[in-house]
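Researcher: First entry.
Model:
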Amino acid sequence: MTKLKYNSEKYEKPLAMASEFLTDLNKKIEKISHLRLALFLIGLIYAVTAFSSHIFPIYWSLLPLLFFIIAIIFHNKFYKERENILLVKDFFEEGLFRIKENWTGKGNTNKNYTSEHIYAEDLDIFGKGSLFEIICTAKTRSGEEKLAKWLLYPDSATNIIERQMAVKELTDDIELRKEIYLITRKMRSIANPQKLQQWSDAPAVFNNGNPILWRILFSFMAALSVISIASMFFSDFGLAFLATVAIIEWSIGRIYKKNLDKILSGLDGPRNELKKLSDILMNFENKEFSSPLLARLGKNLLTPIKSSTAIRDLGRLVDILDQAKNQAFAPLAFLLMWTPHLSILIEKWRIKYGENISSWIDAAGEIEALCSLAGYAFEHPDDIFPEITDKGPVLKAAALGHPLIQNSRCIRNDVNLDIENSVLIVSGSNMSGKSTYLRTIGINGALAMAGAPVRAESFKISPLYIGSTIRIEDSLQKGASRFYAEISTLKDIVDLAQKEYPLLFLLDEIFHGTNSHDRKIGAEAIIKQLVKSGAIGLVTTHDLTLADMTEQIGTKAKNIHFDDEVSKGVLNFDYKVKDGPVTRSNAIELMRSVGL
């Protein structure tokens, strides 16, 4: 049995069990719905009969009412179970869609991170049918942002290797990945990370976090309210007493409203999210890990206090605070100074634990992002984890394939780039596979530096910045031609070559928007400058004059090409890399093939 088939069955069996359990639950829910209706009608008949004929006492109708309430409790219980089972089904169904290569349009296509990024659009990192869509199972903003960061920016070899080890450890832990998924699916986001951060960093509102006088004042007024309510039953002035207390409390509330708003402002909205955040961290805290990153994450979540416990305490305070919004309880909550009391307790919590909120949210996002990569590794068992080295620049791969192309259609090629073999000039005719080759190298490079497996038989890479000019377009809004857009991007790529890590450049049809003479001079100058800065990369062209650049650049440059052949008037491509420059063009044959 192949690894892929085995892993597919790991999803299919629990999915079948969930479907069977869901069928049984639906039957139970239907039966209880009928029972509820019957009990309601019986109770109504009993009550009407008791009132009209006095055949039996009215309290007899309370028995059907009692059973009706019990039925409601079970009905709600089964509904919650069904909600969980539906999420379990979603988890395994989504995994099977990805395994069976039927995932496009069914996942997270978040395009918030593509703006102005130098390769996100070119390499299909985001959007429909993207790398992010096939990888991301994160449902919180923190998890999405962490995963996006790993796919968009290089990191040190040490950090990448640690992520790899963490992903390997989580790959077969389907239960943990499922639990994290179930929890986060019930959240809109982990609150609002920026807003919570501002809230936790704000200075203390009351006496540097020790509002003893205010607590005494609020407690005294609450006790006075209770006395005034009780006085209504034995004093003629009870109502006036109560009204006076209420006016004083209203005045106190108005005086300190701004301060109370400061305390509660950062907690707008995240009531349910705080509980779920606690659940995420609790699932993780209860595990023992061997990989350094996971072990460190787990240890940090237990220092200085168990993070899930602290967050659950905050969530409980917020829940109690929310009781004041209940219309039936709101008048009594006002008299008991419910909101001021809870605000002070929340302020006390913030002073004690607020500085840890950012790290806890970040940890939850990192857990989700690692689970996403682990799920991708589990669902692509034939892909390999690359060798990461800090001795670069280097990118070497054998049988490298594009991870977004169906495996059965994926044509694989080798690539060999290092400081001695810095540049590959890729010539070839139209539609022969040059751009796809660049995208294949770039997207696998992004996967490798995120800590994920890559589609190859072997793969070695050092941390690299990636710069590409594959989808260069003009812009009416910016008033920029394609050529101007290209040279602007090239300027960014040249600047990128001066940063912390070496550069991998992927230049497709360089200077396509100008004449052959200027193209050759400009391309030679750009590539020489990049090579001089220690960059490695590829340049594609169907202009055969650019193949001569290897003579100007020297031994660090090499010509390779993609070829085609015409058989019985049909143009065929094998999409395989071959040594040397291409020797002919297929433009005329392409025009002939479409009837021109």
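Researcher: Second entry.
Model:
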Amino acid sequence: MFLKQLLRRKKIEVLLAEMAGENQLHRVLGPVSLTALGVGAIIGAGIFVTTGRAAAIDAGPAIIISYTVAAIGCAFAALCYAEFAAMAPVAGSAYTYAYATLGELFAWIIGWDLMLEYAMSCATVASAWSGYLNELLEALHLPRVAARWSSDPFSYADGAPLTFAINLPAILIMLLITAVLIKGIRESASTNAVLVLVKLAVVVFVIVLGWSYVNQANWTDIPSNERILPEQSAIPKLAKDHLIHTEKLSTAEAIERAPALQQHALAAYKLERAKAETERMLEEKDITPLEAEEALAAAKRIHEPSLATTPEEKAEAEKLLAEVREKAPHMAAEKWGMIGLLGLNHYLVPIDDATRSPFIPYGISGIMLGASIVFFAYIGFDSISTHAEEAIRPQRDVPMAILISLGLCTVLYIAVSAVITGLVPYPTIDDKAPIAKAFSDLAHREQSSSLRMATAVIAAGGLAGMTSVLLVTFLSQVRVFMAMSRDGLLPPIFGHVHPRFRTPHLATMLTGAVICVVTAFTPIRKLEEMVNIGTLMAFVVVCAAVLILRVRQPGVHRPFVCPVIYLVAPLGIFVNLALMLFLPWDTWLRLAVWLGVGLVIYLGYSRFHSRLAKETLHEIKHHGMTGSDTPLRG
């Protein structure tokens, strides 16, 4: 009985009937507006921020392949989304689809999971928004927003951790977005359309202008030994903790001395790597003794000025490096995500080593990890399905908008990732505003005023792109809340529609407040990973749900039919699940905690307030059914 309650399903007819009544949303979105919403949600922080960071530390120039792998996983899911969105054009997206196929408990889980995709995505993009704001201010020769007021408390400024920080620009842009969304969907769509045109123009501008400055040697000639290894990434993170726990300094003293220790240790580490690589190449006769001597001399000229000079500084740097080396095996396994934690990387490392090259410096694991990270850049096409209830002709326009927006953005992503890795050697790509910074450095090298102006244009385009992402993803989150509130799984406040604006204003204000707090204090990298694992899980569920419904209800009218469903859906499940496995284990742990909290809320509140549960009890009272005779929806 209890299990049947958890697995009760909604009929497709019930979903369609719910679109009528006083809570109906305005049908004002045509195919162009829907496609613009998709592009608006997709192109943003992913292409302007995530591309650079993933190329630098995860995939190198092979970030192009990472984008292709992520696009394949998204394409399978997009076809499944398109079929479901055309069949049931109501608000709620994957949550609604799961309710109709897998049952109420799974619907709750995926609805709770979608909060990671949409709300946390807003927080991630708002956090990145501040970086591009500073690039724009610098290009316009205006003062930058101080690091203390444009970063989270876990960030570093000039090599030193910030003792107190708050991302104020992110809060302000979220407040503005909240106000726009309360005003209405028509105004939101119009605002988004303008922003989409701006950022598409800037993306094309980046590709056309950047291509003429691409150095193909950056794709093929940078030795794979120059890649950023986990040990190198760990030195800045461990410097302060080392001074506190090993050297027994106070927090204030550690913060003051951490930048110098970090510099000394990094220089020693890089010189050590250069010596080891030179010896390897000499032993394998890849270079002559004279070439080896010249290479070592060049490495010393680069790194010796940053080495420690006093015996005390040298001892501190050596202790830190010893700590880093001790933790190196664990850090290497972390690069494999859950696969490393499960020990499966042991079987894949030989393949990783065999595929490593200047173009693929991090091997297969780098490509897959890069794909799981840049997957964030594709989040958005599924948000079109959350607006199906506001589409004029949803059966035709929603599938079309999903597929067109995904295809267009994939082409642009691959082109931009090729340009950024061709402009800048991948180990030196900036991780906060990579595209704007690349053109800024290029303008400095070329002493070109026109390139400096181009930097300002790119930074402005980045801001426009991220603003439109905020607009659409926030809009999508509130629509999911509204669908869950209609079903009684969330309090009525989330489903209340403003009598004049016809928007869920209370849910918008509440969600905006929460996002402001999260974006002000949380590191962007962790937010990205949480968003990715939440979205990948949603994609897996949608692919499974469409397949299940094909078997259970083959006769339901499907205006759009996913081709080769018995191949596409399983492949969608496999590819998206594989990408999930390359995310870090602590991201899985956060997902488990998040879902655990959600399960407590469901069992404590939602299960008893579910409209479907109340309807079932009503039928029991009137028809005298109990136990296994209790009628189930669907």
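Model: Note on the second entry: The first strand starts at residue 156 and ends at 157.
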